[in-house]
Amino acid sequence: MKYVYILQSEAQPDRRYVGLTGDLPARLKRHNAGQITHTSKFAPWRVQSYFAFSEEERAVAFERYLKTSSGRAFSRKRL
């Protein structure tokens, strides 16, 4: 199972991060522990939304979509 997730910074609520993982709780711990370079300066993080996929290809495609400008607009408006 693959998870596409959207994190929201608790320190700066307008900051979000989109990622892909196979173990969401462990990945969130790594984000909050400062082990992920891109997110370390905006910690702590909380999971805003996540989506489970049984097929990795679909998860990768959805993550890529959420990282586009139209995907960011969709997630801010709908999720």
SS strand fraction: 25-35%
Count the strands? Answer: 3
CATH fold description? GIY-YIG endonuclease
CATH class: Alpha Beta
Q: Biggest sheet, strands in spatial order? A: 2-1-3
Radius of gyration: 12 Å
Straight-line distance between termini: 21 Å
Number of helices: 3
Question: Which structural class matches the secondary elements?
Answer: alpha+beta
Q: From N to C, what is the helix and strand string?
A: EEHEHH
Query: What would you say the CATH architecture is?
Result: 3-Layer(aba) Sandwich
Keywords:
38% helix; 79 residues; 3-stranded antiparallel beta sheet; 3 strands; alpha+beta
In words, what does this structure look like?
The longest helix is centred in the C-terminal third of the chain and has 11 residues, at 56-66. It contains 3 helices and 3 strands. It is α+β, with helices and mostly antiparallel strands and 79 residues long. Helices cover 38% and strands 29% of the residues. Strands 2-1-3 form a 3-stranded antiparallel beta sheet. The chain has a single domain, classed as GIY-YIG endonuclease. The radius of gyration is 12 Å and the shape is globular.
